[in-house]
Design a protein that fits this description.
- Helices cover 60% and strands 9% of the residues.
- By secondary structure, the protein is an alpha/beta fold.
- The chain has an eight-stranded mixed sheet, with helices on both faces.
- Helix 3 packs across helix 20 and helix 6 packs across helix 10.
- The two termini are 52 Å apart.
Length: 797
């Protein structure tokens, strides 16, 4: 993983604030970037899809749909509907069933025969170019309808069924019938014929149904009539044989038993009431103590009903010291004026006795007289209660006798009724059968009459409410829908292809991607050099070769103009990008007097040597003492470009075979010094870069030059760059635009932590500036090569 501490120091305060606020690119920017990058793919796929839609519209024959609306179950009058044997209930399942009948082969066959569709070119293979082609191809293969056992009638029915459709409108009983045809008049004619054929089929079905039902009901009606007459005759014969007489539909024995049961129930109720009254009186007479407190409750008890048995027994648990209240609770006190009068006198004396006792004392003569009068009244009440008790006993004896007589009569009636039980059960069974047969007979007679009436006046349960008319516009193919499908389908296909391209494109495209992914600053975005620009710079260098100073055989070659672009086109975008690298070097926080800068890349062929040469050339052209050192000992490509004839190099200086002054090459224009490299074995290259001699060499270079630009090997394939960390002040990593993936760069930096700690930043090289705009890169047109050429600093020839 990348070092978090290093990453945090590389982000300045403004960048950190921006990342914290925005949190990365939002969805709108992502969509706009995707459209900028893949607009060409979207445009091409949309155009192709739209062209395909137009072709389909041109070659596809137009199709017209005629529509007819039919109401199912809405044409029957109430009278006929009431007498109908089988009628449509208009439930969803019934409507669906009728729709299937409407689309059946029977209806289709009737329409085909009526309109002679078998001879219509639209319905045979000759009228359809696609089916004709299929038939011709099958014939070429030797496949005929006879070999496939295909009936032409079945083919015609299948074609008719494909063109016919019937759907229910909402939750109503209205069905919409549609038929497709190339001729709008023909489509309406067939749709109307389908509706008429369905109605005719329904009428024919009802006539056959009524005829069958009427015949069956007539035979069944005769059978039920004979059965009902036989059952009624059997009931009359059994009653005469058993001598059973009935009145108002009921047997006389049953009436007597019912009446005696009612009388017995009433007698038992009177007996229970009289018994309860006697028991109440006896409980009252058993009371030995009668005081004022008991008499005080007589008003509440006397309000009970005399005739109610519950009223006679509800006070049975009353106070035994209150005889008058007990009498009233039994029902006698309410109708006995003597007891009521005595109770009132007793209460009056009790009140006066209480007042006199409080006023004169309890032993006063008046108080004693009052007490004596109260005791006399109590004895009188007890005598009256005894008289009433005797009356109640007499009533009880009378009710018991009456009950016994009724029970004897009931027993005799029940005994007499048992003799006719067997005959009565048989009679009831026969009567039930007779009533059932008679009811069935009447029901079937009513249905038979209704069936006869309806058979003479059949009605269809469906009617056409909106006949089909020739359509004005074609329905297929739908021009707007097909064009919209072409546009949106093309956009969808283009988006899918663009997304696949986006997923395949894993390279760095913008400086923001580098900073977000690697947490390192992007020092510069170097444009891709085209061949025309390089040729112009090379021609100019060749023309000015005579003006350059000659340093003998060790003068840097001017044959290639690639590394001279920064000085030959100072106002070009390429020169501006190299100046951005120099600006980053000058702002390096190390602040060393002389700087040793190493340029490396993750993979080979990313342009690090060109960037190193251009940077060194630009620094030297500004008057600085600069030397470029080729330390790529395994593939010294910079030496092959600047000093192709060099026979010695840095390895000869380190071995002591040559001095530094005898090995350096110099540019005649910018006075840039160059120390060539020399190819070494793979095993010795890293060892050479770790020796004490190379440290001394670089120490000497620091003292002599302001800038030491070192071209290093790639970082990922070899370990040579890691060996140079004691020699280099700052590293610059060159990444090729759109080629090197972030995962490879991260892996290379993670395996070289010392290099990462000294890494000054990233240079995005070989950038397609026009394509970069589609990835969100925004660069002005002021610093560009065409602008520089127009103003005559480089000849446009």
């Amino acid at each position: 993983m990348l070092h978090n501490q290093k990453a945090s120091t590389l982000l300045d305060s403004s960048q950190q604030e921006q990342v914290g606020e925005n949190g990365g690119p939002d969805l709108a920017n992502m969509v706009l970037g995707f459209l900028r990058r893949q607009y060409l793919v979207l445009a091409i796929t949309t155009a192709l899809a739209l062209a395909a839609s137009v072709v389909v519209l041109r070659i596809a024959p137009p199709t017209y749909i005629a529509q007819l609306r039919m109401l199912l179950g809405g044409s029957k009058s109430p009278v006929v509907q009431q007498q109908s044997i089988a009628m449509l209930d208009n439930t969803p399942s019934d409507v669906d069933s009728q729709i299937e009948i409407l689309k059946s082969k029977a209806v289709a066959t009737a329409v085909i025969n009526q309109l002679n569709l078998a001879d219509d070119p639209e319905f045979d293979n000759k009228g359809n170019w696609m089916r004709s082609a299929v038939t011709t191809f099958r014939g070429f293969l030797g496949i005929t309808p006879q070999s496939l056992k295909i009936d032409p009638k079945d083919q015609l029915l299948d074609e008719f069924a494909k063109r016919l459709s019937a759907t229910r409108i909402g939750g109503t009983s209205v069905v919409e019938i549609s038929f497709e045809s190339r001729d709008p008049i023909r489509a309406a004619e067939i749709a109307n014929a389908v509706g008429k054929a369905y109605i005719d089929d329904q009428l024919k079905e009802k006539v056959d149904e009524h005829r069958t039902a009427t015949g069956w009901m007539r035979d069944r009606l005769q059978e039920l009539g004979h059965d009902a007459l036989a059952a009624e005759r059997a009931v009359s014969e059994l009653k005469a044989k058993s001598n059973i007489v009935s009145a108002d539909g009921k047997l006389i024995d049953e009436s007597q038993v019912t009446e005696l049961n009612s009388r017995l129930a009433a007698a038992r109720a009177h007996t229970s009431e009289a018994t309860a009254r006697v028991i109440r009186f006896e409980s009252i007479l058993a009371t030995k103590n009668f005081d004022a407190a008991a008499l005080g409750s007589l008003d509440a008890i006397s309000s009970m009903n005399v005739s109610s048995p519950a009223g006679s027994t509800s006070a049975a648990g009353g106070n035994i010291n209150a005889p008058e209240s007990s009498i009233s609770g039994s029902g006698a006190a309410q109708s006995n004026q003597i007891i009521n009068t005595l109770r009132l006198q007793y209460l009056d004396y009790a009140k006066r006795e209480y007042e006199y006792s409080a006023k004169y004392g309890s032993e006063h003569l008046a108080v004693v007289n009052l007490r004596t009068a109260m005791a006399s009244i109590q004895h009188t009440i007890v005598d009256e209660v005894r008289r009433l008790a005797e009356v109640a006993k007499s009533d009880l004896a009378e009710t018991k006798q009456r009950q016994q007589e009724i029970e004897k009569q009931l027993a005799m009636a029940v005994a007499q009724s048992r003799n006719t039980n067997t005959a009565e059960l048989s009679i009831r069974e026969l009567e039930t059968n007779a009533k059932g047969y008679r009811s069935l007979y009447d029901n079937f007679l009513q249905r038979y009459m209704g069936s006869l009436q309806q058979a003479s006046f059949p009605l269809s349960e469906a009617r056409i409410i909106s006949p089909a008319a020739p359509p004005d516009k074609k329905s297929k193919p739908n021009t707007k829908l097909l064009l919209a499908f072409g546009v949106f389908g093309g956009l969808g296909l283009g988006a899918a292809i663009g997304f696949a391209r986006e997923m395949k494109d894993r390279g760095f495209r913008t400086s923001a991607q580098i900073e977000d992914r690697l947490r390192l600053p992007c020092l510069s975005v170097v444009p891709l050099l085209n061949g025309r620009q390089v040729k112009k710079v090379t021609k100019k260098a060749s023309r000015t070769a005579g003006q350059a100073m000659d340093y003998g055989p060790r003068t840097i070659s001017r044959g290639s103009g690639t590394w001279r672009m920064a000085t030959a086109m100072p106002m070009s975008r390429y020169a501006e990008s190299i100046r951005s690298i120099r600006f980053a070097l000058d702002l390096d926080p190390t602040k060393t007097p002389s700087k040793v800068v190493g340029l490396t890349s993750t993979l080979p062929h990313e342009g690090k040597s060109t960037i190193a040469a251009s940077l060194a050339q630009l620094l030297a052209n500004s008057g600085k003492r600069v030397i470029a050192v080729d330390c790529d000992l395994r593939n010294p490509s910079l030496s092959g470009n600047l000093a192709p004839d060099a026979g010695v190099g840095i390895t000869d200086v380190l071995s002591g075979e040559r001095s530094l002054e005898d090995t350096i090459w110099t540019d005649g224009v910018t006075r840039l010094d160059f120390l060539p490299g020399r190819r070494a074995s793979h095993s010795a290259s890293s060892d050479i870069l770790c020796t004490e001699q190379i440290k001394k060499l670089f120490a000497k270079l620091r003292e002599t030059y302001d800038y030491v630009i070192v071209d290093l090997p790639p970082l990922a394939p070899v370990v040579d760059v890691r060996a140079t960390t004691p020699l280099i002040d700052s590293f610059i990593l060159v990444v090729e635009w759109g080629r090197t993936t972030p995962a490879v760069v991260e892996h290379a930096l993670n395996t070289a932590p010392n290099v990462y700690d000294s890494l000054l930043g990233i240079v995005l090289n070989k950038t397609d500036m026009k394509a970069m705009k589609r990835y969100g890169g925004h660069y002005g047109e002021y610093y560009n090569d065409e602008h520089y050429i127009r103003y005559g600093q480089i000849s446009a020839e």
